[in-house]
What we know:
ANL_N_sf, Long-chain fatty acid--CoA ligase, ligase activity, 369 residues, alpha/beta, LuxE, five-stranded mixed β-sheet, six-stranded mixed β-sheet, single chain
Amino acid sequence: MPQSKEGTFMTEASIIAALLAFMQREETTEADFNQLALQLFAWQFEHNLPYARFARQRGRTPLTVKQWRQIPAVPITAFKDLTLSCRPVAEIPHIFMTSGTTGTGRGRSYHPTLAVYDRSMLINFRQRFMAGYPRLPMAILFPHSSELPNSSLAHYLTLAMQECGTPDSEVMVDAQGLKLPRLIAALEQAQASGRPYALLGASYSFVHLLDELARQQLRFRLPPGSRILDTGGFKGQSREVAAEAFYSALQQTLGVPRSHCINMYGMTELSTQFYDAGNEICPPVKSGPHWIRTRVVNPLTGADVPEGETGVLVHHDLAHFNSVSAILTEDAGVMVPGGFQLLGRVAGADAKGCSLAMESFLAAAQARA
């Protein structure tokens, strides 16, 4: 069983306690992150059999890995094909599933508790989106978590509204789509009130809103301090809109400057989100809190590429403790000062490299012990 730095045996409860305490710290060092990352790797290696087999094939074990960058990353598509959980799934009360818009399967992330996920989300959200406001009136352009209990985005947005929204905040989506008359009335009220207003939701929901406002020839000038959060892309649910045109349209139609139009980058297979500081220039620089690190790698070798060169993003998320904390995505990116730039889905050689990485993972994880 993994041991802590004091030599005591780690349990799920002690890991959760250590993570919650680490998130609350205002100052941490690379050594602090490395120590906790190695403890989590040892825990996941012991309790997540498919991951342990893969790590052994790569010659990576808790005895040989001394630095968090050496922890083997699981291809993100593995979440569709294998059960990646340290606790038996029959005991798991919370399961988030991917939308299933690509491929045939749905990736699953298993959460024995949402205490870590929620702490990760709220600390980060308050720092990166709320901009010092304890609460804001909000319109949520996505279903409530009670309607989509297996959606990590529904949980994220509902939590944002409950913990950071004022009592008059509303979910502006029903079974038929956006509640457009109610949403337009809320925008009119917000504009007249002079109080900052927040709109949060899937990127494609904002496209539907922009199209309807254009059809009705409506524009708003939301009060200073108002802000917009979009996430998740378009997923075939709306027309595709280039980032420059998208954020310019939000500014022109809703009166929210592009500096206050924040894109959240997250995924079901993680428990931590990344944010930018507005979209005045696209692509913006994204970054996360101190409990997540990002690398840009060559997917064929797993080696880091030099800063400024394009590769595939790997995220090491300590908050994703019950599954696998190191994830090889299918997103292209480049490391820059202050974080990374997200360049879209991988293509060409990088896409082939991701496919080969997945084949390698499945071959190892499904092999006999």
